[in-house]
Design brief:
By secondary structure, the chain is mainly alpha-helical. 52% of the residues lie in helices and 4% in strands. The chain has 16 helices and 2 strands.
């Protein structure tokens, strides 16, 4: 859409230097300081050029062809204008009238601003720091080179939710599950008195690691120093411990459900003691590998219980066996990837914002907790209907009926 009109007059100086066809439209008004706006229409744009006093030009110039020819011949006999002569006495306007000022976006008037805001949101700001600029306690991954937030207060950390940096994916991948789990899981659990404790164990174990991780990654750049950072790291480790201990109790209970009473409680108490030992090691660990290995003993006991289920000596819903295996196998793979800094160690600086090892680990542990949820739902339903016999220490029940009744997440 072309501008409706370009009002103004053409000075001799403009006519002398113009190289494109120029159309002249009579001026409609003058400025408050008795100066006129000169504009030309060139290539479909209305381009204000200069302000000249109307007293010296409006009486001698008009929009008729004779006036233009007269002005052109006069311009050819004039000497080149000096800087002082070409300086307008009134204010100079520099705005160029583009097509964008007159036309709406083809997809609608609101689409262009929306895309600009989205692009701004997804573009890392210019004030992010590099790895070498960070304090030593935040230099834990030498292969992620850019995208670091500067040290900030609480308000600055919270505002980092609304722009992209190298912790954005870590925050979102563990922040979104908090809302989803709290909105869906409680309605799926049996809150009867007999299974209320196991239901609480599962709910707390499912949501705790994401709460600790979300707070840790969001506030890890607090300007309170290294001590505050390690308190946040301990909170993150405590959330993981809650998932490894309380979150695993329904699976442990289902596995030993049909064993003799002394053996059943011996295994449950043993697992609880190993989890307490793991918590102590997690709170006192001084390196990433120590923090990962502190859960080694509870992990090994869960592997032993899984083998017990495979041997048919243990209990539990047979359909949950795959999820029992995946909940530990997937999280173990994620831990190894995070510890070995794969893939950023192969091309440092290329995956600083997306798809680095910690991002991948976060996604994998979410998948592991999903498997834990599926195993728990099936096992609790199995325990509600199981009838254990002393002859084979296993249960006798209609497995197909239970498999068809469990709720899916």
């Amino acid at each position: 859409m072309q501008p409706a009109e370009c009002a103004g007059v053409i000075s001799p100086v403009v006519l002398e230097s113009a190289t494109a066809p120029i159309s002249v439209v009579p001026i409609s008004s003058t400025t408050a300081n008795n100066s006129s706006i000169m504009t030309t229409t060139t290539g479909g744009h209305c381009r204000p050029l200069l302000l000249l006093p109307s007293s010296s030009t409006s009486s001698s110039l008009s929009s008729s062809p004779e006036t233009v020819r007269s002005a052109s011949s006069t311009a050819s006999s004039l000497p080149p204008p000096t800087t002082q002569a070409s300086t307008p006495t009134g204010p100079v306007t520099t705005k160029q009238c583009q097509r964008d000022d007159y036309e709406e976006d083809e997809d609608g008037p609101g689409r262009a601003p929306l895309m600009k805001q989205l692009n701004k949101l997804l573009t890392p700001p210019d004030d992010l720091l590099q790895w070498k600029d960070m304090p030593q306690h935040l230099q834990f991954n030498p292969y992620v080179l850019t995208g670091y937030r500067p040290l900030q207060g609480v308000k600055g950390c919270l505002s980092s939710l609304f722009y992209v940096h190298n912790e954005t994916i870590n925050i979102l991948t563990h922040g979104i599950p908090i809302v989803y789990i709290l909105a869906t899981v409680p309605a799926m659990m049996p809150w009867e008195k007999e299974y209320r404790f196991l239901s609480w164990c599962h709910l707390v174990g499912s949501v705790a690691p994401w709460c600790g991780s979300f707070v840790y990654h969001l506030f890890m750049n607090l300007e309170l120093g290294e001590s505050a950072y390690y308190r946040l790291l301990q909170l993150d480790m405590f959330g993981i411990w809650m998932s490894q201990s309380f979150g695993a109790l329904p699976m442990v209970t289902a596995t030993v459900f049909c064993l003799s009473w002394p053996l059943k409680w011996l295994l449950i108490i043993s697992y609880s003691l190993l989890c307490i030992w793991g918590l102590f090691k997690a709170m006192t660990a001084s390196s990433p590998w120590q923090r990962r290995l502190c859960f080694g003993l509870p992990f090994m006991m869960r592997i032993m219980l899984t083998l017990l289920r495979i041997s048919k000596l243990g209990g539990g819903n047979p359909s949950s066996l795959t999820h029992v295996f995946l909940q530990d196998a997937v999280s173990a793979v994620g831990g190894v990837i995070g510890a070995m800094h794969i893939p950023e160690k192969w091309f440092p600086g290329s995956v600083d914002i997306y798809l680095n090892s910690h991002n991948i680990m976060h996604v994998l542990v979410v998948m592991a907790v999903y498997s834990m949820h599926q195993a728990t739902i099936r096992d609790i339903e199995w325990m509600q209907n199981a009838e254990c016999t002393r002859s084979n220490l296993t249960s006798s029940l209609n497995i197909d009926a239970i498999n068809g009744s469990h709720l899916e997440l």
